[in-house]
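Example for tutorial group B:
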């Protein structure tokens, strides 16, 4: 049976703005309070999705969260009409208001962890939404993420959906941004690598000191248990605390894998030699490519600035691989020179394709942040909600939808505007009808 990797990219929501909410994410903090362009951000993301579709990839679309999150604002004591809630929050707690407007769900790499049917004991594809407890604005997402996942992967014969982990820092889970999978073929049993930042129950272990470690070992172990993974096909590795303190807030900012390729910076992992030996042993095949980038080749600072590793590695129809990189990599001479050299080496990576995702990059998310990887076989793909798969028709409809509903610019003071709330709800209601998702948002269930 044919198998492949589908990428489900998050649509940028109508309230995309720069609030600098993510401590530890250098780009996010540097862009705080800049003027954003929700329309450009959404169109850039849709253009990337269509380009991958045209390259022969299976490309899906993942709906954004309902924003502003009025329900959360009411839980926090703001009352009256929706307009009054926004005005009170703007005056009394502007940081809370910003958090409840965040469009961070565009980064679907954080939405959940996915294990393919080839890895799980029940031979189903498993999904666990990330609880994202480390950041308030992201902790608002898991419930609706679960609703959307169930609406997209809506056949219980093939898909198994789990509740997100306990909402506590001990089980802080950031989803697929700290998870990758190596395999020979997507449909065969693979090796799942869970990268964590700290041990929650053992304070004596190494941990970052400047920025928070968002993923715990205990959360990764819990997801592996829920997904029915065997110990022989799982590797746990700690992210180097030093790189977290340099702004590498997720592992997908410092390494990325695809099939038999692991592309990583030499500073990415703690105890790298032991980790790589375990990966090699459990992978089994000698046909495994460890592509290590040294600090001399590309500095840690340039990795964070350009998101060299927050790129997608995709397998093309001819069996070779391509890197999907942000334009920031193209414009950095040292990174561009490295990538030019990489495609000439004896590895499966033979192409680099550059995309303009600047609106996302300014908020701290590159091409890899924007997509959730789901390995599927033909039968499972047929069980997916087909309205969420990219096509020429959907591309046209999404562009028209964005042009109709999204603002060209957004400033912080715009967040108090009740018209923005209504614009966002109208847009999302229309989107759920387009994608046949049903009533996944709270405002649709009232």
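The residue assignment follows.
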């Amino acid at each position: 049976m044919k198998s492949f990797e589908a990428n489900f990219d998050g649509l940028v929501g109508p309230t995309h703005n720069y609030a600098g909410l993510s401590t530890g994410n250098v780009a996010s903090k540097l862009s705080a309070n800049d003027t954003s362009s929700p329309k450009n951000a959404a169109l850039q993301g849709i253009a990337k999705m269509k380009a991958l579709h045209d390259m022969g990839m299976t490309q899906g679309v993942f709906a954004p969260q309902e924003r502003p999150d009025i329900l959360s604002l009411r839980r926090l004591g703001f009352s009256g009409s929706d307009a009054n809630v926004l005005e009170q929050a703007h005056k009394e707690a502007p940081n809370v208001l910003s958090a409840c407007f965040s469009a961070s769900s565009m980064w679907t790499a954080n939405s959940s962890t996915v294990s393919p049917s080839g890895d799980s004991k029940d031979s189903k594809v498993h999904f666990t939404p990330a609880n994202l407890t480390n950041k308030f604005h992201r902790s608002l997402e898991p419930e609706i993420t679960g609703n959307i996942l169930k609406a997209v992967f809506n056949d219980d014969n093939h898909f198994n959906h789990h509740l997100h982990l306990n909402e506590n820092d001990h089980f802080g889970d950031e989803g697929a941004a700290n998870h990758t999978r190596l395999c020979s073929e997507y449909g065969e049993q693979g090796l799942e690598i869970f990268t964590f930042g700290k041990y929650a129950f053992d304070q004596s272990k190494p941990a970052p000191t400047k920025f928070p470690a968002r993923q715990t070992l205990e959360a990764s172990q819990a997801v592996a248990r829920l997904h029915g993974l065997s110990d022989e096909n799982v590797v746990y590795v700690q992210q180097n605390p030093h790189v977290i303190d340099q702004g590498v807030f997720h592992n997908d900012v410092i390494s990325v894998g695809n099939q038999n390729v692991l592309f990583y910076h030499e500073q990415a992992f703690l105890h790298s030699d032991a980790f790589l030996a375990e990966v090699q042993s459990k992978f089994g095949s000698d046909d495994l490519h460890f592509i290590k980038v040294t600090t001399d080749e590309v500095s840690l600072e340039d990795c964070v600035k350009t998101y060299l590793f927050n790129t997608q590695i995709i397998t093309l129809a001819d069996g070779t691989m391509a890197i999907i990189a942000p334009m920031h990599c193209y414009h950095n001479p040292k990174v561009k020179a490295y990538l030019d050299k990489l495609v000439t080496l004896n590895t499966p990576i033979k192409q680099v394709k550059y995309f303009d995702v600047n609106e996302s990059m300014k908020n701290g998310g590159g091409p890899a942040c924007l997509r959730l990887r789901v390995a599927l076989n033909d039968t499972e793909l047929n069980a997916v909600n087909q309205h969420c798969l990219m096509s020429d028709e959907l591309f046209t409809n999404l562009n028209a939808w964005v042009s109709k509903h999204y603002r060209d610019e957004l400033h912080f003071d715009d967040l108090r505007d009740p018209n923005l709330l209504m614009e966002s709800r109208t847009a999302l209601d229309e989107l759920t009808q387009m994608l046949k998702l049903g009533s996944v948002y709270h405002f649709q269930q009232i």
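The chain has a mean pLDDT of 95. Compare this with the pattern of hydrophobic and polar residues in the output above.
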